[in-house]
Amino acid sequence: MSDSTTRRWLDPSSGATPGMRMLLESTAHDGPTDAERAALRRKLGEALAIVPAGPPPSAAPSSTLRPWMFALLALLLVGVLAALLGRHRLGLGPPPRVPEPLPSAAITPSSSPPTPTTDPSKNKAPTASASAPPSAATLASSLASTTAPKPTASNSTSSVEDEIALVKRAYAALRNGDPQGALLLAGEHAKKFPAGMLTQEREVIAIDALVRLGRRAEAVQRANAFRKAFPSSAHLRRIDVLVGSNDE
Amino acid sequence: MVELTSKTGFRAEAELASPPRMPAPALDFSVVYEEQAAFVWRCVRRLGVREADVADASQEVFLVAHRKLAEFRQGTSLRSWLFAICIRVAAAHRRRAWVRRERATDAVAAEDETPANQGEELDRKRTREKLDAILDRLDDDKRSVFVLFELEETSMADVAAAVGCPLQTAYSRLHAARRQVEAAVRRLHEGGWP
User: Do B62 and A244 touch (CB under 8 A)?
Assistant: First the structure.
C-alpha cells in the first residue's frame, strides 16, 4: 500500500462523497489570521523574556522575535546604568535596585547590613562559580545586599559600570553562540560581584548557557536555587521556559 | 547551524556540522516559529482544541519547543517533532476544557439564533462543528493519523514518523479512522444533512 493507492479524500478522484469533502474543506480556514499570528508572536516574545535561545545572529536569517527580545535586556541594562549615573551625579545616597519587581520576602534588608569596603575583591560574601551553582541562600543573600543601601566606594560608578559591562559581555557571548564563554563570564561576575545588583540577570544567563551546553542537570539545580532565592522574580517565567516549570 | 531549506517541506533539511556526541546546535527558534506557526495552529485546532483556546495551545507548543529545542535530533523531521508536542498539548487542553464544555455549548446555541442571512460563514462554521464532533469520537492515535494525512496532506511515511509507529500501523489507523468517519457522515446524511 502506498500514498499513490491511498488517495486523500480531498482529492476529487478519491471517490469520497461531496458531503465528506465539504466536511473536510470546512477546515480550510483553520490557520491563524495575520492578526492572530501577530498576537501569538507578541505573547511568545513576552513569555520568552530576556535571552532568546538560538545560534549567533550572524548565522541566522532575519527574525522578528529575536531583536525584540534582545532589546529587552539592552533596555534593562541601559536603564540601570542611566539611573545609577544620574543618582551618583546628583549625590543621592542609596543606589537604586535592579529595575524589576523584587520578591517581597527578600526586600527586607538583611539583619546584618553589609560592611562597607573599598575593594570589591575583598568582599567576603559567598561566591558562585560558573560550574558550581550558587545556593538559594547565597542568591538570597545577594539580593538582600542589592536592596540594602551601600553608599561606599565599592559602589562607585566605575564598579557599577564594570558590573554592567561584565553582564553585557556574558550576554553577548550567549547571543553569539558561545555558551561556554557566557558561563565563564557569569562565574567571573559571581566572584567579582557576589552581591551585585545584576545577580538575577547573571543567573538567567548562566542557566541559559548550561542548557545550551547540554548540562541540563546543572541548569535545573541552578534554576531551583534561583526559584528559592527569588520566588517572585520577573525572570521566573524565563527560567521555566529554559528548564521547565516542574524541574522536568 | 541548521538550515531549514524549505519553508513548506515536511522535513527540516538539517546539515549538522558538530562532532558526534556533542550537544546538537540549537535551531533558530525564531525561524522555527516563523515557518511552523501556521502548522502548529492548524494542528492543535484539528486535534480538538476549541477555537477559543487555539492561541493559548499554540503558545504552549512553542514554549515547550523552545525549552526542548536543544533536544531536537538533527536529521529528523521538525514537523514530526512539533506534531508530537501538539498531540500532548492538545490532549492536556481537551482534558482541562471538559468543564468548560457547557459554556461552549451555550455559545453554539446562541449562534444558532443568529439570523440565517449570516450566510456562508455560518454554514461553514456549523459544518466545521460537525467535523469536530466526528473527530472527537476518534481516539488520539487515529485522529492524529487522519489529521496529518487527510488534512495536512502529509506522506504516510512522515505520518508514521510523527506518531511513532510502523508504516503499516499508520495505514491501519488511517483506514480505521476513515471507517469511523464514513459511518458518522452516513448518520449525518440520514439525519437530513446534505
Answer: no
Nearest chain A residue (CA) to B55 = A40
Residue A175 confidence (pLDDT) above 70: yes
* Separation in Å, CA B95 to CA A167, B61, B99, B101, B109: 43, 16, 8, 10, 22
Nearest to A183 by CA among A248, A130, A114: A130
Whether B31 and B65 map to the same domain: the answer is: yes
- Angle between the N-to-C axes of helices A34-48 and B54-68, in degrees from 0 to 180, rounded to the nearest 10: 40
Whether the predicted interface score ipTM is above 0.90 = no
The identity of residue B54, as a single letter, is V
**Are residue B104 and residue B42 in the same domain, yes or no?**
yes
Domain boundaries, chain A: 63-110+123-243
pLDDT of residue A117: 38
Cβ within 8 Å of residue B22, ≥6 positions away? A214
Give the gap in angstroms from C-alpha A243 to the nearest C-alpha of chain B: 6
Binary contact (B194, A19; C-beta < 8 A):
yes
Cell of B131: 467535523
> What residues of chain A lie within 8 A of the CB of B27, using their CB?
54-55
Q: Which domain holds residue B27?
A: 1-113
